[in-house]
Amino acid sequence: MTTIRQRRVGKGTEADEDQPSEETNVKPDGKIPSDHTGGKLWNILSITVGGIVAISLGLLTSVYVATLHENDLWFSNIKEVEREISFRTECGLYYSYYKQMIQAASIQQGLHGLVYDNNTESVRTINILERMNVYQEVFLSILYRILPIQQYLEPVYFYIYTLFGLQAVYVIALYVTSWLLSETWLSGLLAACWYITNRVDTTRVEFTIPLRENWALPFFAVQIAAITYLLRTHLQPVQERLTLMAVFIATFLFSLTWQFNQFMMLIQALALFILDCLDMLPTAKVTWLYIIQISGLLLVCVLQFFNSMILGSLLISFNASVLIARTIQKNLKKGGLLNRLGKLILHVLLVLCLTLLINKFIKKILYLESDEHIFKFLKAKFGFGATRDFDANLYLCEEAFGLLPLNTFSRLSDTLLFYVYVFVLFLMAVAAVIVAFRNLSGSNQVKLMQKVEECTITLKPDAAYSLVHTVLFGCLALSTMRMKYLWTSHMCVFASFGLCSTEVWKLILKCVHLYTPQRAQVIKYSIPIITLLYISYKFWPGIMDELSELREFYDPDTVELMNWIKSNTPNTAVFAGSMQLLAGVKLCTGRTLTNHPHYEDKNLRERTKQIYQIYAKRSPEDVHGILRSFGTDYVILEDSICYERRHSRGCRLRDLLDVANGHIMDGLGENEPDLKPSLYPRFCEEIKKNLPSYTTHFTRVFQNKTFHVYKLAKHK
């Protein structure tokens, strides 16, 4: 098991952003000096200072996570094999393709090896560029080869520094989004500080560096910042076109770097759909965003050799359905309240039916089954019937795919983030309900004009989008813990925007009859500054202690295993085992695998279930036959899986296999009435007894405290 141990001593006052197209130079509330030239200079100074602060915070965040990574592993001092083992599970698989491209004789040969790959799945030739989102590794490896940096920077450092550099882009994008929403860079400063002090819940880049989300989320944040700017009113045509281009580029890069992009953008499309139906966003801009999502995803589809999972995505079906439904219902936004509600319900039903029909039609034509495990998982997760499906249960039993733990909220509350977030969310939600009712009713009643004006100021289009975005992604995070990083980072933006928004404080002060422009400005700046001082006082010592704590990577058993494989097995040997371990085997030794952690392929899922029979109650003849059918030469058994205690009964890997095979589970507890006792003992336990029925097929060639390696007999 990989552990981290203690390192041995022997080893070492600004103003709002200028909006000349929306506001006059003379401000009655004192935002901008009355002198025209002075106002321009003040805004230039403000933007310059705000930009410098944004870049500085981004770079500091990058250095911060890089230092934590170095301090946790002593990465600069450990051996190359230990560095590679630290890229655990699927992280190691992705990094292996970067290493493969670096070590190839030429770029062309490296690309050919990825397009016609025979080592990732034995007895199969697969196209890595089609199956996996590894273009970032390809681009980075080419960049490393052509830049004159080989003598100064090792390939692994070029890779990890790029990822840590993207964290700077991430923080700057969050900063800019909050700045655009509140029109003060103080809000961006607060958002960035919250992101850093809540690092445990906002990012995991320092210990899962090559993970796809660490590549994708910075581009997603840039896309949200560009959308926020796009939704501003009175943009010049040139500004709008440039912003649309920025949205497209960010959407494309986000889609290219993460296989779950379609599900995240589907939630984003739902947010746009809701706001468009409630007349809170300009329809023309929403249409452009739908088109950008489709075009970005289709471009990625082309680059991934027409990946069928992309073509069959719900996002393409949904966006196409919305655009079709609009042409059918042209007078959707006309009429009174009841008339509008009736049309709206009909519109939603039409879009839903069209989405399902189009998606089913595409999947039937393409014979698409790659994503069926996701829908089985969702069906079981939300209580639509129990399942014995191995793949669905494999996800259900993982903590990362469970509900968001309650202790997350206590950590977020320590920095005041959660309290502020709930406060702002409540105010914005109330405003949204009022604005939605007014838009649907089409009322121009004089009595409501004052309230309407307040709500319109509070809930501008960009703020409305931010509200629905945070609500939908909050629901996703609450249901699936792994997706919390999409929510918590935007939570920092949303909370800081509300705390620094003139409109929010104006609305609150008017409600209690205490509003004056000067008082609103004082509160707008004083509350965030007090919050920043509190965060600095409470968390700065902890951050310094964290940076001073030195640890060391320590996993001798895995290091011993990898060294043995490299020294004692042929380069063409095929290895079977757990998909998490095999990713490391591929990275560290270059040997051929039977299965791996990239689970978005039906054939691979079926193959993995068959390989995992080594932990089930099966006869040695059955297991040997299964393994040899995939060309296996060696099988690695792990005690941590065979005698697993991490999960409770019913969620251990051996329990999932027993249930899927129709066998009674081990240990005390209930079993389904139709489950039967197995005729054979558990393979991973019985093989260690060296009985003749096992030694005929398997010979132990390596053993340590964690791993047992057996060589398979090649019977004719």
From TrEMBL:
The chain crosses the membrane at residues 41-66, 156-181, 215-235, 242-258, 264-281, 312-329, 341-362, 416-441, 462-481, 487-509, 521-540. The keyword Transmembrane applies. Residues 1-34 are annotated as: Disordered. Residues 24-34 have a biased composition (Basic and acidic residues). The gene is Dpy19l3. It comes from the Eukaryota. Its main location: membrane. It comes from Neopipo cinnamomea. It is found in: Membrane. Belongs to the dpy-19 family. This is D19L3 mannosyltransferase. GO terms for cellular component: nuclear inner membrane. One of its GO terms (molecular function) is mannosyltransferase activity. Keywords: Glycosyltransferase, Membrane, Transferase, Transmembrane, Transmembrane helix. It is a multi-pass membrane protein. InterPro entries: Dpy-19/Dpy-19-like, Dpy19L3. Residues 1-10 have a biased composition (Basic residues).
